Predict the structure of UDP-N-acetylmuramoyl-tripeptide--D-alanyl-D-alanine ligase.
Amino acid sequence: MKPLSITDIASAIGAELVGTDTGRLIRAVSTDTRSLGEGSLFVALRGDNFDGHHFVSKAVENGAECLLLDALPEEVEDLKVPVLLVKNSLYGLQRLAKWYRDLLDINVIGITGSNGKTSTKDFTSSVLRQKFQVNATKGNLNNHIGLPLSVLATKETDQVCVWEMGMNHAGEIAPLCDIASPDIGIITNVGTAHIEHLGSREGIAEEKASLARALPENGTLIVTASCDFVDYLIERTTAKVVVTGNCRGSVRAENLQINESGSSFDLCIEGEVPARVELNVSGRHMVNNSLLAAAAGFTLGMTVEEIAAGLNATQLTTGRLRRFVSNGITVIDDTYNANPDSVAAAIETLTDLPVHNGNRRIVVLGMMAELGVHADAEHLRVGQLAAEKDLQVVAVGAKAAKIYEGASAVTDKAVSFDEPVAAAEWLKSFCKEGDRVLFKGSRMAAMENVMNEAFPQT
């Protein structure tokens, strides 16, 4: 981050400075004592099962130059570093991030949506790095804690920031927009993720629309033509709108081909000469995500050729349609997370992959979280969809039993296992060279454990 004085930080966030400003500049902010270094500010946060205030001594030991706290520890005089005392340390962190964002001369791209946020962030970052210095969300730092940390990780040399904005409940996107002040907003789609807390897709759309409303008049909203709520989102912004899609929109894919190694298409932007894109990942939904990234690059003045080069070079975050071969069996790792829409997209991706000589397409599915009263119906639906696509369906875990039930109502090519080890053993005996096997489930399903047990990578 841009070096900041302790006194300036205290003034910006309305903190009481306890101790003396040492004159040392703050160059990084962290909530984790394990990631501290020279010039670090340690922010002690409180949660249901932790309290960072218990680790202030460890923070100083690990190199913290200053502490942001909402309660003074008994040993404060022994710490020998200044303390910024506020009423609420989380709010202090957020105020600091908002103030820091306003100091920066950068373009900010905010990304939200029910599915595809991280993949779209990966595509967008790769595109923009063809021309700009880019700061992008790392890992899952996309919530009320993670986004401020992402903002504060921005360097003076960065020109564009690409930040994910995640949510679980209503009212969470708007505060993130207030901190990030996005110039460009990307809404990947409106699906059923987190429907347990928002009640309906309409409720989800209204929450995602917070990003559209936050954009300035000279900003740009980028949406996909295939989203059921595209008109709803467009109506809720005063910014310029760019619509993307497969053979639709001003930024579109034409002549799409999906093959063994990935997806290829002509990137067409109105008024420009098309360029061929060769993605190293399959899936029509991934093509949609790449088009959103292309629109962002074009909005920032990049050429179609530069955009295509960035898309071709994209490496997606682990657990998102990563492919490897184990004993001649193609394994597709899409284990990072799951909801009904992303599972449906993964099923379509597997269905598009060619098989020969009697080989099989096998989908191994775990439970999908945060569906509330919709859980049974949605698990039944994805099981039925997989069966209708003529896939061998493997449901793993007691909470995934409805997937098996939905599939077995359509086909006899479905099995269910309560225990991951049993599922892995069955896969070892069932799968043969040439088969395609895709793994997917919500984070708590830990489907990567089944995958690694069945197909260990050496």
The longest helix spans residues 284-299. Residues 4-89 form a domain with the Udp-n-acetylmuramoylalanyl-d-glutamate--2,6- Diaminopimelate Ligase; Chain: A, domain 1 fold (CATH 3.40.1390.10). The CA atoms of residues 251 and 269 lie 5 Å apart. The two ends are 38 Å apart (CA to CA).
